[in-house]
Amino acid sequence: MALQRRYRRRHVRFLLERRTIRDRGNPKDVDDTVLFARYRFTRLTILFIVDIVTEKLDSALTKRSMALTPLHKVLVALRFFATGAHFRLIGESLGVSVATVSRCVFEVARALVRQANKFIQFPREESTSSVKQGFYRISGKVFSIYLIVPNVFFKKEK
């Protein structure tokens, strides 16, 4: 019995799973068409989003040795936004865990919402009436086309 305990103590460290370092690759090496197909954005737009969001992400605050860069966090979130797939599928395709995908999507979405006021502007009170008139003018044309087109294709023959 004592021999078994000594054997386990000495060899238990070899039985533990070794830490693996995953190669996440360099997303900058990917072709532009593949990048657009995966993330629905061009390379310049992705780098622009990374520049906007970098200071708001918490990657500098972590003391983990395997922290994701802001670029990888944005790419994980954009993959989710583009496909709407399950976190497990996105994590397997990008080499991260499900929890990491969840954190990345939350952090990037929160950072983008904080920056939304710079890019989304609602009309002011003085321009509201002109915007309404423009909308009614466009919607009226679309509605009239919708009424005319079915009559052309579905004429009853006598």
From TrEMBL:
InterPro entries: HARBI1_animal. It comes from the Eukaryota. This is Transposase Helix-turn-helix domain-containing protein. The lineage of its organism: Eukaryota, Metazoa, Spiralia, Lophotrochozoa, Mollusca.
